[in-house]
Design brief:
Chain B: It is found in: Cell membrane. The complex is a heterodimer of chains A (310) and B (301). Chain A contains 14 helices and two strands; from the N terminus they run H-H-H-E-E-H-H-H-H-H-H-H-H-H-H-H. With 310 residues, chain A is an all-alpha fold. Chain A folds into two domains: 26 residues, no CATH class; 227 residues, MetI-like (MetI-like fold), CATH 1.10.3720.10. In chain B, strands 1-2 form a two-stranded antiparallel sheet. In chain B, helix 4 packs across helix 10, helix 7 packs antiparallel against helix 10 and helix 10 crosses helix 14. Chain B is globular, with a radius of gyration of 25 Å. Chain B starts with 29 loop residues before the first helix and ends in an 8-residue tail after the last helix. Classes of the chains: A mainly alpha (310), B mainly alpha (301).
Chain lengths: 310, 301
């Protein structure tokens, strides 16, 4: 997992000798990076600056795009908007529920799969399928399955005694979108955890077994510490995507009923592309960006500290 | 673990054949085995039922699709698929837009990403960590926060409702992803290989092109496929940037949901068309999926 070769002192010393002069060597790597980085800068720094500018202005779209500076008005609105705070709260609940359930289920499934010795690859292949489904299709499929008159899951629930409209009442709609997200992304956690489990040394687990440690103790004191890094990576990867995607909610409930599923990105889309209040949307966007940069920071620091790559 | 008294029959160093435990100490008790199979069976049901149901419904006729009691035994028909490719709402342009936008953005991301990724993996420049952080945070930026300024910029540049506009929009997440992931794959290749190529008289470019790049073929394919999947599955960008001349498949699917009602037969058919190619592509690179999806932080099995 670590690339010891990269940092071996012998190679570090050997490198300048083989590559002739020092200047062109840096130049070559720089030249390789240039086209990609220029495009990336155009696609990230320019929009970022535009986003900042927009958050301080009123954006007009009619008759050509124009920005009228309004100072801190968007930000004042951002911090005093009670609906907005509710949205953040809802986002946090949604985030904790989806990522939490995915982690618990994913690790459980991975531990089970790890016990399976015959046909593990076939099972894993089948379990991974939801990851490749477009989130918007997941949402539409979820709508089909939970429709109160002909949905398969609604029918199952009806025979169990629940006969409400699942996407029609706030709590069940919220639960439904959470479960759709869990359906799609639990396999990712299971896949990553399984890779971590495969790297726990055989000898250590054998030693635990020889010492007579019961299964759960081996799990608690041997397996979990060994895969904690991998679990953390899985958590961070999932967290960053959990705030990126909102397609499922957008196509199922569109934030409703009664705002029950209106998480922050959905509200941003509504503000920007239904009410065309792009200045306020930019302020919301910057706040979301701050959150994701925090996660990115943690991710990179984790890689640096624990030496997972590079 | 009641098997501790069993004497080890095979020499400890060799790996056990597939399907048997690595070590007799690892054998699972019967109770645990039951729990394992129960959990897996339930999870398989939970995972596969919606997909199988979608596939089945796409072959049902109008009455079976919305029957109050789920129809398992039904007369399969191709009407839904036929309806998609004939009549006023032909699906062909949507497929074409999806293929173009996702394909071009994935190809561009892999080309530029492998060049920049190689540079990033081998460079010793001072600001490398900041550079790496900038790249990864671009990948992680919430779509909603990217769409708003891009919308304004694209309006200014007349890129709304064009395929190049969609390609650029998809590059905002595919390019940093490709750079980061390819640099992780290049970091796996020991630098001594290039050094021997240089000693043998190659230029830096020749060393990259003839020695290093062929060694990272798996990485290139994985990166390409993951970029393709991300772009193909996108809905949030397409719903804002695409119009009649550039609408992609996920948009076509969501457009079937109207005030007057939904043709669920056709919708499940589109769903199948969107999903199946990506599943096949994804499973084709299964071995490198862990590396790819964790952005190179965890190496697979």
């Amino acid at each position: 997992m670590t690339h010891a070769a990269d940092h071996s002192p012998v190679l570090e010393r050997a490198r300048p000798e083989t590559a002739k002069p020092r200047e062109p060597r840096i130049g070559f790597e720089g030249a390789m990076m240039t086209p990609g980085l220029i495009l990336l800068a155009a696609l990230s720094i320019v929009p970022f600056l535009a986003l900042i500018a927009m958050s301080f202005s009123h954006v007009r779209l009619l008759g050509g795009v124009s920005l009228d500076l309004v100072g801190l008005r968007n930000w004042a609105r951002f911090f005093t908007d009670a609906d907005m705070w509710m949205s953040w709260l809802r986002t946090i609940v949604y985030f904790v529920l989806t990522v939490g359930l995915e982690m618990v289920l994913g690790v459980a499934v991975a531990l089970c799969l790890y016990r399976v010795l015959r046909g593990r690859n076939v099972l894993l292949g089948l379990l991974l399928l939801p990851m490749f489904v477009a989130p918007s299709i997941v949402g539409l499929l979820g709508r089909y399955l939970t429709d109160s008159t002909f949905g398969l899951y609604a029918w199952v629930l009806r025979s169990l005694g629940y006969s409400g409209d699942i996407l029609g009442s706030p709590i069940s709609a919220f639960a439904a979108v959470v479960f759709m997200d869990v359906w799609e992304w639990t396999p990712l956690i299971a896949l990553i955890t399984l890779a971590g489990l495969a790297s726990v040394p055989q000898s250590v687990r054998e030693a635990a077994a020889v010492d007579g440690a019961p299964g759960w103790m081996t799990l608690r004191y041997i397996v979990f510490p060994a895969i904690s890094n991998v679990l953390l990576v899985a958590l961070l990867i999932r967290s960053m995507d959990a705030i990126r995607y909102f397609d499922i909610i957008w196509v199922t409930t569109n934030g409703g009923p009664a705002d029950a599923t209106k998480i922050v990105p959905v509200r941003l889309y509504e503000t920007a592309f239904r009410f065309f209040d792009l200045g306020y949307a930019a302020a919301i966007g910057l706040a979301m960006l701050a959150f994701s940069i925090f996660i990115a920071r943690t991710f990179v620091r984790l890689l640096d500290v624990r030496g997972l790559t590079r | 673990m009641s098997t501790t008294e069993a004497p080890p029959r095979h020499p400890p160093v060799t790996a056990a054949p597939r399907g048997t435990p690595q070590s007799p100490l690892e054998e699972t008790g019967r109770g645990t085995r039951w729990v394992v199979w129960l959990v897996l069976a339930l999870f398989m049901l939970w995972t596969l039922v919606p997909l199988v149901w979608m596939l089945m419904s796409s072959f049902k006729n109008r009455t079976d699709v919305t029957a109050a009691t789920p129809q398992v035994a039904f007369q399969p028909t191709l009407d839904n698929y036929r309806g998609l490719f004939s009549g006023p709402n032909n699906l062909t342009p949507y497929i074409w837009h999806s293929v173009l936008a996702a394909g071009i953005s994935a190809v561009l991301a892999v080309c530029l990403g492998s060049l920049a990724g190689y540079g990033l993996a081998r460079t010793a420049m001072r600001g490398k960590r900041h550079l790496a952080f900038w790249i990864i945070s671009t990948r992680m930026a919430p779509i909603a926060a990217v769409v708003v300024p891009l919308f304004i910029i694209f309006r200014g540049l007349n890129l709304i409702d064009t395929i190049p506009g969609l390609v650029l929009a998809y590059l905002t997440f595919n390019l940093p992803f490709a750079i980061w992931l390819m640099s992780a794959f290049f970091a796996e290749v020991p630098p001594s290989l290039e050094e021997s190529a240089l000693v043998a008289g190659c230029t830096r470019w020749q060393a990259f092109w003839t020695v290093i790049l062929p060694l990272t073929k798996a990485g290139l394919v994985t990166t390409f496929i993951l970029c393709l999947v991300f772009a193909w599955n996108d809905y949030a960008f397409a719903v804002v940037f695409s119009g009649p001349n550039s609408q992609t498949l996920p948009i076509a699917a969501s457009q079937l949901v109207t005030q007057t009602g939904v043709d669920w037969g056709q919708l499940t058919a589109i769903g199948t068309i969107v999903v199946v190619p990506m599943m096949l592509a994804g499973l084709a690179v299964r071995r490198w999926l862990v590396t790819g999806l964790t952005l190179g932080a965890v190496t697979g099995e």
